[in-house]
Amino acid sequence: MTLPLFDDNALAERTTEDLGPASRVLRAFALDKATELLREIERVATASPFRHMTTPGGHTMSVGMTSCGELGWVSDARGYRYARLDPRNGRPWPAMPERLLTLAKNAADTAGFSDFTPDTCLINRYLPGARMSLHQDKDERNRDAPIVSVSLGIPATFLFGGNQRSDPTRRVQLRHGDVVVWGGEDRLRFHGIQPLKPDDHRLVGPQRINLTFRCAG
Ligand code: MD3
Ligand code: FE
């Protein structure tokens, strides 16, 4: 019998799993880049800090959010949209770091989507207890392009539904370093994140960071 020599998935295998006809999980795809990604995220969050946005219905989101790239995702009493300026400081969102862009392009290529050039990366921060209820991503103008998501930090249970809110959902664990590419006919499926369980990640601490790269404009 071989005992595990490492206390986490630092040597996790790079496997792929199909979640739907056009959705693929690339396990551990970003694992060896985590440290540099976190450094870039910190720089973005210094210029445009994480904030808890208000939904049009008047609720405060439990997920902290910021963006980088030409556009950033915004929610307030007026609705959901992409904007060129960060409403908190009136300045353009921080540019998309080259390393983040390269990772997203490589992941899209690997999953069979060539020529992916995202113009925004939404950065979600989940502390234990934070969640994202079932929703569709419909604010992007280009829905033919896929969405690439990168998970860092403590694990989360992702819920993957169908094209109707009432469709059954499948649970998928997303762990540190996992990348998922969602495209084609899966692009408008309902999805969400269950409330995060308290946990601590050796590199990221007691939180989960999720990056989603999109073609919004
Ligand atoms: C499936 N974020 O920001 S990423 C979101 O983990 C969002 O923070 C979640 O849902 C998170 O909108 C999930 C995975 C994801 C993103 C977009 C999708 C899955 C998707 C669009 C269509 C289908
Ligand atoms: Fe979403």
TrEMBL record:
InterPro entries: Alkb, AlkB-like, AlkB-like_sf, Oxoglu/Fe-dep_dioxygenase_dom. The keyword Iron applies. Its cofactor is Fe(2+). It comes from the Bacteria. It holds the Pfam family 2OG-FeII_Oxy_2. The keyword Oxidoreductase applies. PROSITE patterns: FE2OG_OXY. SUPFAM superfamilies: Clavaminate synthase-like. Residues 117-217 form the Fe2OG dioxygenase domain. Signal peptide: none annotated. Keywords: Dioxygenase, Iron, Metal-binding, Oxidoreductase. This is DNA oxidative demethylase AlkB. The lineage of its organism: Bacteria, Deltaproteobacteria, Bradymonadales, Lujinxingiaceae, Lujinxingia.
